[in-house]
């Protein structure tokens, strides 16, 4: 199993300035969120470059206790270029899901698929302060292969990456102070990533056997419940209600599947 590199939870950036250099570099290389609507050949090449070419500088995270859930899903916790590791992890996870969906098909609805694919665009829009101009979504075809283990792995890894994106966005909410525009931007991003994370788990469980894949309760998920009171205080009521509804939806997915608890 090829390792999937994620930041240790304590290393997740807390402000978008910590991601801007990495995001700008990926845009210049054509390795930003737009690669998710590129041709399959381009996507496969992009994944190789992001994962194996040395474009992203990383180093092993020292003094980190190996979590059984990380072992289960081949996750390697690293440090180094935090912005690069963070963004490349999200993109690699999406590319793996797209490849699996193309080969196997999916019963995930078109609306849910759009929800899933909106999150990385929202993330890059937020980090780079880009105007929101929409995105191109191609729904997977029927597929001909049977790859349930690969599907569960791809969906769970994407879920883990998206939960780190939620943590990043919530960190932004809590540190925006009196910048109301930034607060709303951050909570909107957190909500989009929570919604996408729920779809990622649905995708992981979308296998012919109908047996739900084990769901991972992450350190990020527990962190959200620890700070939800602060989020409620910081954001406008309507935005908080959307965020809370997305978090409840994720909990609904938890209750429908076996639960594994991740440390860290």
Detail the topology: elements first, then pairings.
Layout lengths: L3 E4 L9 H12 L11 H13 L5 E3 L7 H5 L2 E6 L1 H23 L5 H19 L19 H28 L4 H25 L10 E3 L1 H16 L2 H19 L3 E3 L3
Parallel strand pairs: 1-3, 4-5
Antiparallel strand pairs: 2-3
Structure description:
This protein is mainly α and 264 residues long. Helix content is 61%, strand content 7%. Strands 1-3-2 form a 3-stranded mixed sheet. Strands 4-5 form a two-stranded parallel sheet. The longest helix has 28 residues.
Strand content: 5-15%
* Unreliable parts: 258-264
N-to-C SSE series?
EHHEHEHHHHEHHE
Strand order of the largest sheet: 1-3-2
| Distance N to C terminus | 22 Å
Counting DSSP H or I runs of 4 or more residues, the number of helices is 9
Q: Main β-sheet, in a few words?
A: 3 strands, mixed
Rg on CA atoms, Å: 17 Å
Number of beta-strand segments: 5
Short note summarizing the structure:
The protein has 264 residues and is mainly alpha-helical. It is built from nine helices and five strands. It is globular, with a radius of gyration of 17 Å.
